[in-house]
From TrEMBL:
CHCR repeat windows: 743-927
Broad class of where this protein is predominantly found: membrane
Name of the molecule in the record: Vacuolar morphogenesis protein AvaB
Organism: Lophiostoma macrostomum CBS 122681
InterPro entries: Clathrin_H-chain/VPS_repeat (IPR000547), CNH_dom (IPR001180), Vam6/VPS39/TRAP1 (IPR032914), VPS39/TGF_beta_rcpt-assoc_1 (IPR019452), VPS39/TGFA1_Znf (IPR019453)
Stored PROSITE patterns: CHCR (PS50236), CNH (PS50219)
Length: 1071
């Protein structure tokens, strides 16, 4: 039970005083008391300084009898009687009110309303129109003038006289106009202002809403209920026959209609035990009825609570939450029959907590605890929904950290739901409260939470807490021993289900009907009735979660952690750096800075010196690691996608779990994602060599998986790559070389010199293969690589026949060397030529190739002709050399590199060609070789056109018959005729081209206009000069001046020609 208010008597009539209190009015530090004798007493309320020391003894909740002797201890009296107006009225003073702005006091006595001076209490006027008045209501509001916009205070007095409501209006301090009258259908029993212009009138037939400006009367109807009046709804609330029964058996007694304003724009109507919430326009709200055990005597609202005074026979004041309608506190006040709350327009909304309750002989002033203490008390009693509702109604300025308190209480409620094994609801509430993951994870056993688990060590603190709460409850029982007959809400013992006292006192606990009514209407979605009303025996024990309960709890935890993971990744990268840097703290910053992700971090110390990035990284690691544990326990299939993506999982935990369960493939993927490559490669080597004690899948056996892993590593990790690629290279060289030869960016970016040195240490053939790939596929023109490849070729060839399987393999290796010597030009020719043995026939052709690269064509041809005696290769060598050398073409063409065999040129007076060199070797060989006529005549026959006649005939001996030279001369004559014919064709073509150019100059390019007519162009075009045409430079008309026309038909004066450069009119055209 909450201790929101404590009763302190401030006025007690002495025993010899036979008068009774009929009405009270409080404003400022004054309390006006109207007696049944017609006297008016004015008291001044004194603030008791020693009051805070008495509050702990007052925490006995609703014990009003103990509150009575409390004020006797202070030295200062609670209230001092300032004066008494004995002749204030001849009859009992039934009601009092003030209009402070008009400085008047209004009273109801002898069924008349009178107006008195607020300072002297002298009678100013007795309103004759109010004869027979039963009640009145006063309101004051600030109203702006619609024409000028100047604010003024508008006060209204509404008096109920039988069936009429009579209205008086004061604007600022003066009475405004005559009284207005509004007639209703029955006698008015109560009046309550809803707004400054609308008033609720309670009658026996029900309630109506009256607009005092338009005098419009609107019935306040309650929503229709099934089973009442044949299912017809919309009847007036509070009607005598609304429930189908009358009060005839009760001596024709009809309950008084009650009404009170609640928070802004809401009112509560009550008649008997029925209640209805409406808005300021009279529309019913969708809220259940207040579960009163009996009809209240009076209603009021003291921010933020709803007050209901029970009949004098019970003498109790009920304090309820207007949101949940639950009973929070019952204060015993003997014979109390009316209460008074200062008007909201006089004091602030939260200042109304100093309201008054009075009986015939005593007036109590209700002192309220601060809101922080009230919330703490609700939380201590486990009434989390009530605490959240109270926080929602309170203004932010009334609390130190409203947002933080709401969040903390929501987490406490979620923890209570978790203890009740409502895991899904608990996690949803944790998510809504943005609970720190550390706090949620600690609820789980060690298999999920690891070292954070508090489940195994939760017993000692609980026993200690239970002992403390048992002492408090024992004290509470002693203070509440006199209130067992009063209808009370559940005691704190019923709200703490996990304490030892809750278990021991469950069978002896008394549950009143009101509390049972509240619990019966609470839904099963985690409200107070479920958390606090749960029996102690039904509450789960504190043993560890096991079996199905653990799986259900883990499934709920997965959704919570998944949402946390998504939110955390908005602020931090996997490398631990924040995506948005935090601002630099400044000295002018008063409050401690907290980043937007602060709620993920459990604040145990001051936030002044917190490394937020490091803390967030710790939380991210905890979330991902715990989520991994949860997946492995409840949903193993979901663990793979988690660690294949960038994550913050702790490697040791994941490694241990996956290794235990034999999920080696997933373990390798995780280590790769965490960049723990050495560990992953060690495992792959262990599995690949089949050295593991455990049985592994075939996919991990052999070097295939290791090679695939190494191919994914970046070039920066070359040392690690070379360290672990050795065993695949020795096991399967072709597969191992894929690490360096694959068509991937990583393979192409590896440091080639380092790779080459490594491969050469393993096998020369592997290094040659790598160099061929680098040079031929990657087009690396580094001279060192080219020279090294030649050296490696020669190194193996010179090593002997033992290095090769057979002669065929050696021949292929030699052919690879010769091919490379032909295609490459970046090796050192002189060095290679010296390396080639001059007397070994295996290297003759290689020497010829190198000489060719050095430009020594004659020496190369000598090797082909005299050493190899391969005339076909000699001729082919000449063809390749001739085609790669620029040759003079016909006079009509310019020089160009020949890509085909040019046959149309005149070789007279040109230098001897490569064919001439070969022919000289055939016909005039050096000593001791003899002339070789057959290949010489074959060369003259095939390539006579490429051999100059003057030089060639000098080589032919005079004794050679002319018939043998027939083919040579035919080729020469045919070549000369071809050159002449080509010149003729070219001359004719140039003539045609000239004619076309002349036609274009004279007639234009043959363009047509939009109508298909030919547009004259060139020198034949015309330009129209009229009065509208201007010079593009000086913008003057042409008149009879000389003009100049540009090719684009723009026209300028001849004198403006020099200044028209860049200023021509490009918009004018042919006309």
């Amino acid at each position: 039970m909450l201790s929101a208010f404590t009763a302190r008597p401030i006025v007690e009539l002495k025993q010899r005083d036979k008068s009774k209190i009929e009405s009270i009015l409080a404003y400022g530090d004054r309390v006006l008391v109207g007696l049944n004798t017609g006297s008016l007493r004015i008291y001044r309320v004194n603030e008791i300084i020693e009051e805070p020391e008495a509050e702990p003894a007052q925490n006995g909740h609703e014990n009003g009898e103990e509150a009575t002797p409390e004020p006797t201890t202070p030295k200062v009296k609670p209230a001092d009687l300032l004066r008494e107006e004995e002749k204030f009225s001849r009859r009992p003073i039934q009601q009092l009110a003030i209009i402070k702005e008009a400085n008047i006091l209004i009273s109801l006595s002898d069924n008349h309303v009178s107006i008195h001076d607020l300072q002297t209490y002298a009678l100013q006027e007795k309103l004759d129109k109010t004869r027979g008045a039963t009640t009145f209501a006063v309101t004051s509001n600030i109203v702006k003038d619609p024409s000028t916009g100047i604010p003024s205070i508008m006060s209204r007095l509404a008096v109920a006289v039988k069936r009429k409501i009579i209205l008086w209006t004061w604007q600022d301090m003066e009475l405004n106009g005559d009284a207005a009258e509004i007639t209703l259908i029955a006698s008015v029993k109560s009046l309550t202002w809803a707004t400054g212009t609308k008033i609720v009138a309670g009658m026996d037939p029900g309630f109506v809403m009256v607009d005092v400006e338009s005098q419009e009367v609107q019935d306040i109807n309650r929503p229709g209920a099934l089973g009442e009046a044949g299912g017809q709804g919309g009847t007036r609330f509070g009607a005598v026959s609304s429930s189908g029964m009358g009060y005839m058996g009760m001596g024709s007694w009809v309950p008084k209609p009650l009404a009170t304003r609640l928070n802004e724009g809401e009112l509560l109507l009550a008649k008997d035990v029925n209640s209805l919430f409406i808005d300021k326009d009279g529309n019913p709200a969708d809220k259940r009825q207040v579960p009163w055990p009996s009809a209240p005597e009076a209603l009021a609202y003291s921010y933020p609570y709803m007050l209901a005074l029970q009949p004098p026979s019970k003498g109790g004041l009920e304090v309820r939450n207007p949101d949940t309608l639950n009973l929070l506190q019952t204060i015993a006040l003997p014979n109390a029959n009316f209460l008074h709350v200062p008007q909201p327009n006089i004091s602030l909304a939260h200042a109304g907590k100093g309201f008054l309750v009075a009986s015939d002989r005593c007036i109590w002033r209700m002192g309220a605890q601060n809101y922080e203490s009230q919330i703490d008390e609700l939380v201590a009693n486990g009434r989390y929904d009530e605490a959240l509702s109270l926080l929602g109604m309170l203004e932010d300025t009334l609390l130190h950290d409203k947002e933080g308190r709401v969040r903390e209480i929501m987490m406490l409620k979620a923890q209570a739901l978790f203890d009740l094994r409502k895991y899904r609801e608990a996690m949803d509430l944790f998510t809504e409260a943005k609970a720190p993951p550390v706090r949620v994870i600690a609820l789980y056993p060690r298999s999920i939470a690891g070292n954070l688990s508090a489940a195994e060590v939760a017993q000692p603190p609980e026993i200690q807490t239970a002992t403390e709460e048992t002492q408090e409850e024992t004290k509470t029982e002693g203070e509440n021993s006199n209130e067992e007959t009063q209808p009370t809400a559940p005691t704190p013992q019923s709200t703490i289900s996990r304490t030892m006292m809750g278990r021991l006192t469950r069978g002896h606990k008394k549950v009143d009907s009101d509390a049972a009514s509240v619990r019966s209407q609470v839904k099963d979605d985690g409200h107070d009735g479920i958390i606090n009303g749960k029996s102690a025996d039904a509450a789960p024990s504190d043993k560890n979660l096991e079996a199905k309960d653990l799986k259900f709890a883990v499934h709920a935890l997965q959704s919570f952690l998944a949402q946390c993971r998504v939110q955390i990744k908005r602020y931090i990268d996997t490398d631990g750096s924040l995506k948005d840097p935090l601002p630099t703290p400044s000295d002018s910053q008063q409050d401690e800075y907290r980043p937007p992700f602060y709620y993920f971090i459990e604040e145990k110390e001051s936030a002044e010196h917190v490394d937020w990035a490091a803390k967030l990284l710790e939380v991210a690691q905890l979330v991902d690691t715990t989520l991994f544990r949860a997946y492995m326990l409840a949903s193993p299939s979901l663990a793979g996608p988690l660690f294949r993506l960038p994550n913050f999982c702790e490697p040791d935990v994941v490694n241990e779990k996956l290794y235990e369960t034999g999920r080696y493939v997933d373990l390798i993927d995780f280590l790769h994602g965490k960049k723990l490559h050495r560990h992953a490669l060690e495992l792959l080597e262990k599995f690949g060599k089949n050295e593991a004690d455990e049985e592994v899948t075939p996919a991990l056996q052999g070097p295939q998986r290791t090679v695939g892993y190494l191919q994914q590593l970046p070039p920066e990790m070359i040392d690690l790559i070379l360290e672990f690629v050795e065993w695949p290279l020795r096991t399967d060289p072709d597969l191992g070389m894929e690490v360096f030869l694959a068509d991937t960016e990583n393979a192409e970016s590896l440091p080639r010199q380092q790779v080459l040195d490594f491969l050469q240490q393993i096998d020369l053939k592997l290094s040659v293969r790598y160099l061929e790939h680098v040079i031929e596929e990657l087009n690396d023109q580094t001279p060192d690589f080219h020279q090294r490849l030649v050296d490696l070729f020669l190194e193996r060839l010179k090593a002997g026949h033992d290095e090769f399987e057979n002669d065929e393999a050696r021949a292929k290796w030699r052919e690879r060397l010769q091919t490379f010597l032909k295609t490459s030009a970046n090796y050192n020719k002189v060095r290679v030529f010296k390396q080639l043995p001059p007397d070994d026939s295996d290297y003759f052709e290689a020497r010829a190739i190198v000489l060719s690269k050095m430009g020594q064509h004659k020496q190369a041809l000598q090797i082909y002709v005299f050493q190899l005696k391969d005339y076909a290769k000699a001729e082919e060598y000449c063809n390749q050399t001739y085609m790669s050398t620029p040759q003079p073409l016909s006079p009509t063409k310019s020089f160009r590199p020949s890509s085909t065999i040019p046959s149309t040129f005149d070789p007279e007076d040109t230098e001897p060609s490569i064919y001439h060199t070969l022919l000289s070797l055939y016909l005039n060989p050096p000593h001791p070789h003899q002339p070789n006529w057959p290949p010489a005549l074959d060369l003259l026959s095939k390539h006579g056109a490429r051999l100059p006649a003057a030089n060639t005939l000098d080589l032919v001996p005079p004794t050679l018959p002319v018939k043998d030279l027939e083919s040579y001369f035919r080729g020469r004559i045919r070549n000369a005729n071809t050159v002449m014919n080509e010149e003729r064709v070219v001359a004719r073509l140039l003539g045609v081209e000239k004619a076309g150019i002349e036609a274009a100059v004279l007639l234009g390019d043959g363009k047509t206009d939009a109508h298909g007519r030919r547009i004259p162009g060139g020198l034949n075009r015309r330009v129209v000069i009229d009065e509208d045409r201007h010079c593009a430079v000086c913008h003057k008309r042409f008149g009879g001046s000389a003009i100049r026309v540009y090719p684009d038909n723009s026209v300028v004066h001849s004198g403006c020609l020099r200044g028209s450069i860049g200023k021509k009119n490009t918009t004018s055209g042919w006309r």
